[in-house]
Automatic annotation (TrEMBL):
GO terms for molecular function: ABC-type transporter activity; ATP binding; ATP hydrolysis activity. GO terms for cellular component: ATP-binding cassette (ABC) transporter complex, substrate-binding subunit-containing. Keywords: ATP-binding, Cell membrane, Membrane, Nucleotide-binding, Transport. The keyword Cell cycle does not apply. Residues 4-234 form the ABC transporter domain. This is sn-glycerol-3-phosphate ABC transporter ATP-binding protein UgpC. CDD domains: ABC_MalK_N. InterPro entries: AAA+_ATPase (IPR003593), ABC_transporter-like_ATP-bd (IPR003439), ABC_transporter-like_CS (IPR017871), ABC_transpr_MalK-like (IPR015855), ABC_transpr_MalK/UgpC-like (IPR047641), Mo/tungstate-bd_C_term_dom (IPR008995), NA-bd_OB-fold (IPR012340), P-loop_NTPase (IPR027417). The lineage of its organism: Bacteria, Pseudomonadati, Pseudomonadota, Betaproteobacteria, Burkholderiales. GO terms for biological process: carbohydrate transport. PROSITE patterns: ABC_TRANSPORTER_1, ABC_TRANSPORTER_2. It comes from Piscinibacter terrae. Pfam families: ABC_tran (PF00005), TOBE_2 (PF08402). The keyword Membrane applies.
Length: 359
C-alpha cells in the first residue's frame, strides 16, 4: 500500500505562506496531477512529499507510515525532474543503475532491473550510449528508467515534459500514462499545463496561492467547476464569462441575458447580478429557441482555422465571446451572424466570492 495522506500541511519561507494548510488524500495506485499557475505552490508541495522541503506545519504519511520528519532516502520515493539530471560521463545503462549501485545491490540484480526497465521504455538499443548522443525525449525516458529501477512505492514527476517540443510532449505524455497503467504505482505529477492534467490524471488537484481550489476527476472539474477560477483555468480555449442582472421573479430568480432570460438557482435570490460562464464549444451559429437556448446577433471579430476546428471571436450584446466550431465555417470577419447556446450548459457563479451557484 502506498497511499499518500497530507493533513493541514503548511510551508512558510520567512513571512511568506507558500502552502496554506493543505489536506488531501492520494489513493494507492492513483495518478494524481497537481496543476495551477506559476507561484501556486504545486512544485513546493511535491518537494514536501519527497522530503526535499520540510513542512512548517502539519503531517505527511506514505503507505500509512508517518514520513513528516524522514529524509528523502527513507521515504521509498523516486523523482523525475524537469532537467533530466543525467551524468554526462556515464552511459545510459550506468545512469539507470547508478542509484542501485550506490545502494550496494548485486551487479546481476542491477543489470536485470536496468534491462527490464530499458525493455519497457524502448531503451535497450541505447544502453551503451551517453546522454550527449540522445534526443530530449530519449533523455527523459532514461530519467524515468532510472526512477523505475528503484521500484519505489511512489513516483513523483516535477514538470518532466516542459523541456520538450509539442510533438515530443504528446509522445512522452502517452508513454508515462502507459507506464503507470502497467506498474500501477502511486504517482504524483506536477504541471502548469491544464491539457497535460486533463489527459493524464485519474484525479486533478487545482492549486492557487498555496490552497486547494478543487480536487476531482477531469470530467468533474470540467463539467462542475467549484468556482470561477477553476472554470477559467480548466479547458482550452478558456471559458467565456459575462455578468447579467438578476430579476427577482415571484417563483425563482432569473438572469436577464441580452434580451433572453435564464432561470437561476434559488440561492441567487439575494444577488443583484450573477457571473455566467459558457464554454466556447457550447456557443454555435444558428437561431435560438428562447425556451431552451440563449441567443444573440453577433459580429465576427476574427476567424482562426486550426484544422479540426475553427475558433471565432465574436462581439455580442454581453461582450466579446470565443466560440469553437468543428471543421470550417463560412463566417468572415465583420459579418453579422446569429449565435446560440443551450441554457443547460451555462454555469453560474457568485460575482463576489467566485463560488459556483448550484440548483
Amino acid at each position: 500500500m502506498s497511499a499518500i495522506h497530507l493533513h493541514n500541511v503548511a510551508k512558510r519561507f520567512g513571512s511568506a505562506d507558500v502552502i496554506r494548510n493543505v489536506s488531501m488524500d492520494i489513493a494507492d495506485g492513483e495518478f494524481c496531477v497537481l496543476v495551477g499557475p506559476s507561484g501556486s505552490g504545486k512544485s513546493t508541495l511535491l518537494r514536501m512529499i519527497a522530503g526535499l522541503e520540510a513542512a512548517s506545519a502539519g503531517r505527511l504519511s506514505i503507505g500509512g507510515r508517518d514520513v513528516t520528519d524522514l529524509p528523502p532516502k527513507a521515504r521509498d520515493i523516486a523523482m523525475v525532474f524537469q532537467s533530466y539530471a543525467l551524468y554526462p560521463q556515464m552511459t545510459v545503462a550506468e545512469n539507470m543503475g547508478f542509484g542501485l549501485k550506490l545502494a550496494g545491490k548485486p551487479k546481476a540484480e542491477v543489470e536485470q532491473r536496468v534491462n527490464s526497465a530499458a525493455d519497457m521504455l524502448g531503451l535497450r538499443h541505447l544502453l551503451p550510449r551517453k546522454p550527449a548522443a540522445l534526443s530530449g525525449g530519449q533523455r527523459q525516458r532514461v530519467a524515468m528508467g532510472r526512477a523505475m529501477v528503484r521500484e519505489p512505492s511512489v513516483f513523483l514527476f516535477d514538470e518532466p515534459l516542459s523541456n520538450l517540443d509539442a510533438a515530443l510532449r504528446a509522445q512522452v505524455r502517452g508513454e508515462i500514462r502507459d507506464l503507470h497503467r502497467r506498474l500501477a504505482t502511486t504517482s504524483v505529477y506536477v504541471t502548469h499545463d491544464q491539457v497535460e492534467a486533463m489527459t493524464m490524471g485519474d484525479r486533478i488537484v487545482v492549486l492557487r496561492d498555496g490552497r486547494v481550489e478543487q480536487a476531482g476527476t477531469p470530467v468533474e472539474l470540467y463539467e462542475r467547476p467549484a468556482n470561477r477560477f477553476v472554470a477559467g483555468f480548466i479547458g482550452s480555449p478558456a471559458m467565456n464569462f459575462f455578468d447579467a442582472p438578476v430579476v427577482h421573479a415571484p417563483d425563482m430568480p432569473v438572469a436577464s441575458v441580452g434580451g433572453t432570460t435564464l432561470k437561476l438557482p434559488a440561492n441567487c435570490d439575494a444577488l443583484a447580478q450573477v457571473t455566467l460562464g459558457l464554454r466556447p464549444e457550447h456557443l454555435e451559429p444558428g437561431d435560438a429557441d428562447p425556451a431552451t437556448h440563449l441567443g444573440w446577433t453577433a459580429v465576427v471579430d476574427s476567424v482562426e482555422f486550426i484544422g479540426a476546428e475553427t475558433q471565432l471571436v465574436l462581439d455580442t450584446p454581453v461582450g466579446r465571446l470565443c466560440a469553437t466550431h468543428r471543421g470550417g465555417t463560412p463566417a468572415k470577419p465583420g459579418e453579422r451572424i446569429a449565435v446560440r447556446a443551450p441554457k443547460d450548459r451555462v454555469h453560474c457563479f457568485d460575482p463576489g466570492t467566485g463560488g459556483r451557484m448550484t440548483h
